[in-house]
Structure to design on (659 residues):
């Protein structure tokens, strides 16, 4: 009986201990890779951030385009800190991939292969988003300044609308590029554009026809007054 | 960019003319209605004041479709009796040519420089093709100081209404004066006289594929003559009446072109003006008289409205362009009552200088930066309209002198800000 109990309990325990002992070096290696990798990532991030700060990289953030971009994305950190964080997280991801490769080379290969296959699309999508942001900001700013100089009311709303439309257009392109909602994005864009124009036409043409008439009359009156201005600026 | 602004057949024609002492150029583009009068005034002026000098009239055309070159070719000289001339007016040889290069007044004038240099001219003049008030005396006043007094560059001095030329009065004149230290009242007048040597000097600059070729040639010529230490003077030409410029052209665009050209020249010549302090007068020729002060219809409330809207809507952009102190003063002004509305001269000076610094340091896309100046400029213009409402000619010049002195007083701070990138509050 004692022998049976001993066999029933000791054998699995022994098996577990054997497995543990055999896996222990692997786990230890994974742990070491994780600790060293994360530490190195932090160290590298600190080095990059300090170097950029000393090189005056943060002056970039004083440029209005960058300052605007940081403000709009609610990023409070300086550009040096941001670059440092990117470096750190890239390091962490590489560390995780390294640790995974110790556990299972096959799984790593699959993950890496998928990642590599998807990388160009991801990069192109990100590029489209960045490009869209830059273009929408530029166009919106142009519209805002033009509207103010032309004495149009609601200049900010006009600029915001233009920014939204351009932004959605590029978002649709990026999503299509990533393979998400290939048709949905374009349909959304078409609905927004068409719907917007239709709604404006209805609101201005039916509900606000008096307002439309007054606005047009005012514009015509001001144009006539402007013609009468014999001011020569040059 | 072609190495020459002239075609081969034109070069052969110029060669056949040999040399000329005087070259008068008329850049044109679709000016058939007005250019005949200009040609008559030029030919009569040459015959009346320089009868013994060999002169050539050049029409540098930008591809007019209304027959402008034909009008130039067929226009007879002015009536001799009416102009009290003893001898009959013999028209000078004419070179009528389309120019090559970027379309614009700069390219047209480049062709005139080239022809003047090839003809080995001593004195040259350029007059606009849409002038209605040009008289034969203009030619004497633009060419005479070069031929008889040895000057290299003659700027025009027009008699203008106190409300006219607000960009010149509020920005160009004070800035050119404080930066380069010379009191040139109309640096972008449009009609100039210059020596053959200066024409050759202009041609040595490689600017003919830039904005200078399009619209910035006036200020470029003036600043190039100033920093090149050429002898500069001014000539009283009287009133300047010309065809209205493109009525569709927006003030904002015009202001951006002028200030952009001015700021670009500041950057090009920065080594030459940083040490300049104060200003000195420039010799004047001709007879000075004043213009009428009849009321001119202007809409001051609309200008104030654009300013207020601009300060409110463009606040985010102004934060990047103006110092906190200047922006705060603008915001206070925008909140104030319209009856007391007045942008003080010292505030306007800071705005202009801070814009120049922001342009130099590329704080914003240049086009955006320059166009955001419009509401602030309109604030200054509205203030001027109110301030000068009861001014006579001498008071107008007195007020402008005060503004110029403000510009000169703040120049040391501007020089530092130009170097450091930011104006101290």
């Amino acid at each position: 009986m004692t022998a049976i109990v001993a066999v029933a309990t000791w054998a699995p325990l022994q098996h577990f201990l054997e497995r543990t002992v055999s896996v222990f070096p692997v786990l230890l290696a994974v742990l070491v890779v994780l600790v060293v990798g994360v530490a190195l990532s932090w160290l590298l991030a600190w080095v990059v951030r300090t170097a950029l700060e000393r090189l005056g990289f943060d002056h970039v953030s004083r440029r209005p385009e960058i300052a605007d971009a940081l403000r709009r994305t609610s990023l409070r950190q300086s550009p040096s800190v941001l670059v440092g964080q990117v470096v750190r997280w890239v390091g962490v991801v590489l560390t995780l991939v390294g640790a995974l490769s110790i556990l299972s080379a096959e799984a790593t290969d699959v993950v890496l292969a998928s990642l590599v296959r998807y990388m160009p699309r991801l990069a192109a999508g990100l590029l489209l988003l960045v490009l869209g942001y830059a273009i929408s900001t530029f166009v919106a700013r142009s519209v805002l300044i033009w509207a103010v100089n032309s004495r149009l009311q609601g200049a900010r709303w006009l600029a915001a609308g233009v920014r939204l439309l351009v932004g959605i257009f590029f978002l649709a392109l990026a999503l299509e590029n990533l393979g998400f909602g290939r048709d949905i994005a374009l349909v959304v864009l078409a609905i927004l554009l068409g719907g917007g124009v239709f709604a404006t036409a209805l609101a201005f043409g039916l509900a606000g026809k008096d307002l439309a008439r007054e606005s047009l009359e005012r514009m015509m009156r001001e144009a006539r007054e402007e013609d009468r201005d014999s001011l020569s600026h040059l | 960019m072609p190495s020459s602004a002239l075609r081969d057949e034109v070069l052969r024609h110029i060669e056949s003319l040999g040399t000329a002492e005087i070259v008068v150029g008329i850049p044109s583009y679709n000016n058939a209605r007005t250019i005949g009068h200009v040609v008559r005034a030029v030919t009569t002026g040459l015959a009346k004041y320089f009868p013994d000098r060999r002169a050539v009239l050049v029409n540098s055309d930008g591809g007019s479709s209304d027959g402008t070159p034909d009008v130039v070719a067929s226009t007879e000289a002015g009536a001799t009796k009416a102009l009290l001339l003893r001898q009959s007016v013999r028209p000078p040889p004419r070179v009528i040519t389309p120019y090559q290069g970027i379309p614009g007044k700069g390219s047209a004038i480049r062709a005139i420089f080239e022809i003047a240099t090839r003809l080995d001219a001593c004195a040259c003049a350029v007059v606009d093709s849409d002038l209605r008030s040009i008289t034969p005396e203009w030619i004497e006043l633009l060419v005479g100081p070069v031929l008889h007094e040895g000057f290299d560059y003659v700027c025009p001095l027009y008699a203008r209404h106190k409300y006219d030329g607000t960009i010149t009065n509020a920005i160009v004149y004070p800035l050119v004066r404080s930066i380069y230290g010379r009191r040139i009242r109309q640096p972008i007048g449009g009609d100039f006289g210059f020596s053959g040597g200066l024409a050759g000097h202009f041609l040595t600059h490689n600017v003919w594929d830039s904005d200078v070729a399009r619209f910035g040639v006036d200020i470029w010529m003036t600043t190039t003559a100033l920093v090149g230490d050429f002898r500069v003077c001014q000539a009283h030409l009287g009133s300047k009446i010309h065809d209205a410029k493109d009525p569709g052209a927006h003030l904002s665009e015009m202001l951006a072109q002028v200030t952009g050209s001015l700021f670009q020249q500041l950057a090009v010549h920065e080594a030459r003006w940083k040490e300049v302090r104060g200003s000195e007068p420039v010799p004047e020729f001709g007879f000075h008289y004043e213009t009428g002060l009849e009321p001119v219809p202007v809409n001051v409330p609309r200008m104030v409205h654009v300013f207020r809207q601009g300060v409110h809507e463009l606040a985010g952009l102004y934060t990047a362009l103006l110092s906190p102190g200047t922006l705060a003063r603008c915001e206070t002004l925008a909140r104030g009552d319209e009856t007391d509305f007045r942008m003080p001269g010292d505030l306007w000076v800071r705005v202009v200088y801070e814009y120049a610094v922001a342009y130099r340091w590329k704080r914003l896309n240049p086009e955006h930066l320059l166009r955001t100046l419009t509401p602030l400029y309109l604030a200054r213009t509205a203030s001027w309209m109110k301030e000068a409402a009861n001014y006579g000619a001498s008071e107008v010049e007195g007020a402008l002198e005060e503004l110029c002195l403000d510009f000169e007083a703040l120049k040391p701070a501007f020089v530092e800000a130009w170097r450091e990138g930011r104006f101290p509050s």
